[in-house]
């Protein structure tokens, strides 16, 4: 498929996931196959990968301010866990913090 049509519309929406390494397996292979034949997607992917590289460098160079982690942890609500749930506040906060770290 070339740069037009349904495939293009579908694939171009997946380009950010490819650029950030979130796409794998068959989806990644199919998208790469499309990109090789589609100039618009190739250009878009090139721009996205450049932006992703810049963000990775910025994130690696900037340390959070002193006390950032403790302020974040203090703002994370400790909800009523309900029966059978983890009741330790630190564990609940750690779970929230882990989810924050895993956000794309
Ligand atoms: Zn395309």
Strand content: under 5%
The tally of strands reads 0
CATH fold-level assignment of the domain at 8-58: Arc Repressor Mutant, subunit A
Morphology call: elongated
The arrangement of helices and strands along the chain is HHHHH
What small ligands are held by the chains? Answer: zinc ion
Instruction: Report the CATH C-level class of the domain at 8-58.
Output: Mainly Alpha
Shape-level CATH architecture of the domain at 8-58? Orthogonal Bundle
> From the helix content, strand content and strand pairing, which structural class follows?
mainly alpha
Residue stretches low in confidence (pLDDT < 50, at least 5 long) are none
Radius of gyration: 20 Å
Structure annotation, total helices = 5
Amount of helix: 55-70%
The biggest sheet, with number of strands, parallel, antiparallel or mixed sense and barrel status, is: none
Mean pLDDT figure: 82
Distance from N terminus to C terminus (CA atoms, Å) equals: 30 Å
Structural account:
By secondary structure, the chain is mainly α. It has a domain at 8-58: Arc Repressor Mutant, subunit A, CATH 1.10.10. The protein has 5 helices and no strands. It has helices at 6-19, 25-37, 39-61, 68-75, 89-101. The model has no long low-confidence stretch (mean pLDDT 82). Zinc ion is lined by residues 3, 8, 11-12, 34, 38, 40-41. Residues 3, 8, 11-12, 34, 38, 40-41 line the site of zinc ion.
